[in-house]
Design brief:
The complex is a heterotrimer of chains A (326), B (294) and C (247). Chain A has 326 residues and is mostly helical. Chain A has one domain. Chain A is built from 14 helices and 2 strands. In chain A, a hairpin with a 3-residue loop joins strand 1 and strand 2. In chain A, helix 10 crosses helix 11. Chain B has 294 residues and is an all-alpha fold. Chain B has a single domain, classed as Orthogonal Bundle (ABC transporter involved in vitamin B12 uptake, BtuC), CATH 1.10.3470. Chain B has a two-stranded antiparallel ribbon. In chain B, a hairpin with a 4-residue loop joins strand 1 and strand 2. The longest helix of chain B has 32 residues. With 247 residues, chain C is of the alpha/beta class. Helix content of chain C is 32%, strand content 26%. Chain C is built from 9 helices and 10 strands. In chain C, the strands form 2 sheets. Chain C has a 6-stranded mixed β-sheet with strand order 6-7-8-3-9-10, with helices on both faces. The chains are: A mainly alpha (326), B mainly alpha (294), C alpha/beta (247). The interface between A and B is large, with 46 and 45 residues.
């Protein structure tokens, strides 16, 4: 498992290090933030089997809290990020406490509704600046030395933080905790009979996922020097679902690939006459109808059996993708 | 006379507004419940179908020059027909998958429809005039009711009742209820369940279309009018539980009234009160007010 | 019976059996549950299928009805091939399905349950006739279906297919979980149906019940039919039957 990932991960890191030669750093930062956001979301979907439709609440909270700390309290960037993570985690614990009482589509609807509630709260709360958002952020010096006003320095700081966060996700997924999560997903009654409390584990995973989403939002606010309502909307929640779906549910790198594709697509579509929702909606439909394994899932099964099997509804391969996680 | 320091007219007025919102919640969550019963799909496109109903009403008025009553018939039919296409073209091929895929697919459909409408019609609202008969007010003595708003409440009550009777008291309704419980067995009796499933979606879509027509004279007819509404309706559905149709209707009106009353007592919370009620319900009774399964 | 022994005038062909199943395979997802079932049911005959839990008895009925989506082989009903047909179309060829655990709908009253199956061919019983045969059901007609006792639910499950007019009845473990006195009552009903000329395919674990009503008996194991014998030969098969049913 580990070895099969070393090469792609290393390749990806090398690519990301030379990417600023080709792309604007700020664009790459956006992709990294989306990738981390998607990984946070996928931690819940891929390993616990819970589809949250309200993850923008944590992404946006992270963005607002980081912006608040930087713009109004003049905290150091690393402390502002920590603050963003802490508040997002706390919000995650509260929302998770309510949401993990149900599963499946109910869980999705509940997280969507609670996410919308958070949106309305931020819409009305004075500190968020309503439609204007929090502006006037000066990112300062990361750890007191790295000057974040330099785009390249900013980019490599964000890259370092996201890489660390990904390493943490990997560590958690491989830990006994991650194994128990998967056991709960596979067979909840059996996990209970083994003495585990699934609700507690789900809540812990939810909180952790919210904290990571908050980190992603915080990084975005720090880099773009603005936090707005866009980051809290349900459209943002939907977008992260789409990234994961496009990338491939149930694969570690899938969300990253998906985030890069959707992030890139959005950039490209910014000049298009068609509104982005049309393309995103069509992508959703296509993925669900024809491409449920996503890019990474398809690549994985192509690598596993070089001669791809015929895809019929009764093929075991296809059967496996009938469930949303393996 | 005052109630908690508020004049009763104000409270009754807000209850009425609450009932109007509740009318839409009831019609939409009823449609969602019918669709969920047979398709096991949470229809995220429901808000888009509602918006299409409102636009269809606007088109019958602006393009065809027909009156409100024509729109009241044409728009639900048109939206129902569109629902038939969606069900046959997309939904039917994913019934065997995890139910979450249904949510994702209909989410995509909603984005696509709303995006296209924005592309075609722009984001600004379209005017829709209140039919002449419903101009003015009814003074009921204790409260003043704008005629059209009274009509909306009545029309939705009558529709909910009619749909409830259709499902609880007719032969077709017994097919639908039985197929909700055990579609395989129903097909073993020689009933075409696939057709039944399509009709359930068409019925739900038509109800959303009807809500859209009713909403057209009250709210702005815009491509995004259904997006926020559908999330509130989801909260209504979670609160009520998917167990029963009458539960969906009652919860719909109840949530509308609660929302209306919050506007009197604590206006700042009125946009989130439904979500708070949902959260409380999850604490007290996770299956929902009328829900059966946990 | 050799064909020459039948006195024939002209070229009249043998009547098709009501149901003729050849090499039927069926799969639930990836698990292969039927491995080539072959059986036929003659007009007016009662054929019992015996076997342990998981032998494939219920799956055989479900596969014939077409509610197992993936199946192969041949299922002919009155000579017509149905392997590619949808279950509702198959049912309309005259099949009357009484499922395991009775399949009474909780959201329908007893009477609604009774009236649910559409009439698929003429000659079904009128509702008054049914209430005469099953007076209990008349009393409880307005109760929700699943509030009825187990025995009443089984009667209801049989009664509702009699109304629809199908002449080939599939009975899936009609005695399961019922008290002996109720089982006797069910046996009477099945005997009555026999005298009325219905063809029946009966899935059972209750050996005594099956032997009392069946003209022929098949024994299933691991998705195959391993032996078939007539009621007359039942005694000579008793030992192997005990063995296969594992009682």
């Amino acid at each position: 498992m580990l070895r099969s990932h070393v090469l792609p991960v290393l390749a990806l890191l090398v690519l990301l290090c030379i990417a600023p030669l080709v792309f604007y750093p700020i664009f790459l930062i956006k992709l990294l933030c989306f990738a981390l956001f998607a990984a946070a979301f996928h931690l819940l979907l891929g390993y616990v089997g819970l589809l949250s439709f309200g993850h923008a609440a944590f992404f946006g909270t992270g963005a607002y809290m980081c912006a608040q700390a930087l713009a109004r309290w003049n905290l150091a960037p690393e402390l502002a990020l920590l603050f963003a993570v802490a508040v997002s985690a706390a919000l995650g614990a509260v929302i998770g406490f309510l949401a993990v009482r149900r599963q499946g589509i109910y869980f999705a609807m509940i997280t969507l509704a609670l996410g919308q509630m958070v949106y309305f709260i931020y819409l009305q709360a004075p500190f968020t600046g309503g439609e204007d958002g929090i502006r006037g952020i000066t990112p300062g010096h990361f750890l007191g030395v790295v000057d974040l006003s330099n785009p390249l320095a900013l980019y490599f700081t964000v890259l370092a933080v996201t890489t660390l966060a990904f390493a943490l996700v990997w560590r958690i997924v491989q830990s006994p905790f991650g194994m128990i999560l998967e056991a709960i997903r596979e067979n909840e009654p059996r996990a209970i009979s083994l003495g585990y409390n699934p609700t507690l584990y789900k809540l812990a995973a939810f909180t952790f996922s919210a904290a990571l989403a908050g980190l992603a939002g915080g990084l975005k606010a720090m880099s773009f020097q603005i936090a707005t309502l866009v980051d809290v909307t349900w459209q943002m929640s939907g977008e992260v679902v789409l990234m994961t779906l496009v990338g491939g549910i149930g694969t570690f790198l899938g969300p990253v690939v998906g985030a890069f594709i959707i992030g890139g697509l959005e950039q490209y579509l910014a000049q298009s006459a068609l509104p982005a929702p049309v393309i995103l909606g069509a992508a959703f439909i296509l993925c669900v109808m024809l491409f449920r394994k996503g890019v990474a899932g398809t690549a994985k099964s192509l690598l596993q059996n070089r001669a791809p099997k015929r895809s019929t509804p009764d093929n075991p391969e296809t059967q496996a993708t009938n469930r949303i996680v393996k | 006379m005052e109630i908690f320091g508020f004049p009763p007219q104000l409270i009754l007025g807000q209850v009425l507004i609450g009932l109007i919102n509740g009318s839409f919640y009831a019609l939409l969550s009823l449609g969602l419940a019918i669709i969920f019963g047979l398709l096991r799909v949470i229809n995220f496109a429901h808000g888009a179908l509602y918006m299409m109903g409102a636009f269809a009403a606007w088109m019958t008025q602006a393009w065809l020059g027909l009156n409100f009553w024509a729109a009241l018939v044409i728009a639900p039919l048109a939206v129902g027909l569109f629902g038939l296409v969606v069900e046959r073209a997309f939904l039917r091929s994913i019934y065997h998958l995890d139910h979450l895929y249904g949510l994702l697919l209909t989410f995509g459909i909603a984005l696509l429809i709303e995006g296209m409408y924005r592309y075609w019609f722009g984001a600004a609202g379209k005017p829709f005039t209140t039919p002449d008969v419903f101009r003015g007010i009814w003074d009921l003595g204790f409260v003043i009711v704008p005629k059209y708003r009274g009509f909306v409440v009545l029309a939705s009550l009558v529709t909910c009742l009619a749909v409830w009777l259709l499902i609880e008291r007719t032969r077709l309704g017994s097919y639908l209820r039985a197929a909700t419980e055990n579609p395989d067995l129903v097909s073993c009796f020689g009933i075409n369940v696939s057709l039944l499933t399509a009709s359930a979606y068409v019925l739900g879509a038509a109800l959303a279309g009807l809500s859209g027509v009713l909403a057209a004279p009250i709210y702005q007819v815009t491509p995004l009018m259904g997006t926020n509404l559908i999330i509130v309706v989801f909260a209504v559905v979670v609160t009520g539980g998917m167990g029963s149709l009458s539960g969906a209707i009652i919860t719909g009106y109840g949530m509308g009234v609660i929302e209306g009353l919050t506007k009197v007592f604590y206006p700042a919370a009125s946009s989130v009160v439904i979500f708070v009620v949902m959260a409380l319900m999850l604490l007290l009774r996770p299956a929902g007010l009328f829900g059966k399964e946990a | 019976m050799p064909k020459s022994a039948v006195p024939t005038w002209g070229e009249r062909p043998m009547p098709d059996p009501v149901l003729s199943v050849t090499d039927l395979h069926a799969w639930y997802g990836e698990s292969h549950v039927l491995h080539g079932v072959t059986l036929d049911l003659k007009e007016g005959e009662t054929l019992a299928i015996l076997g342990r839990n998981g032998a494939g008895k219920t799956s055989t009925l479900r596969a014939i009805m077409g509610v197992i989506p993936r199946r192969s082989g041949s299922v002919k009903i009155h000579g017509r091939e149905t392997i590619r047909q949808k279950s509702h179309a198959i049912a309309r060829l005259g099949l009357a399905y009484v499922p395991e655990e009775r399949g009474i709908f909780a959201s329908l009253t007893a009477q609604e349950n009774l009236l649910l199956p559409p009439v698929i061919s003429p000659g079904g019983l009128a509702i008054e006739e049914i209430y005469e045969l099953f007076p209990n059901l008349a009393e409880r007609r307005n109760s929700p279906g699943t509030r009825l006792s187990g025995g009443e639910q089984q009667m209801l499950a049989i009664a509702r297919v009699l109304r629809a007019g199908g002449r080939t009845i599939f009975l899936d473990e009609p005695t399961e979980g019922l008290a002996p006195v109720i089982v006797e009552r069910i046996a009477e009903v099945v005997a009555m149906l026999k005298t009325r000329g219905y063809s029946m395919l009966l899935v059972e674990q209750n050996l005594a019940f099956a032997q009392a009503v069946a003209d022929r008996t098949c024994v299933m194991e691991h998705g195959h039919i391993i032996e078939t014998f007539t009621a007359a030969d039942a005694d000579s098969h008793a030992a192997s039957l005990q063995n296969h049913l594992g009682v």
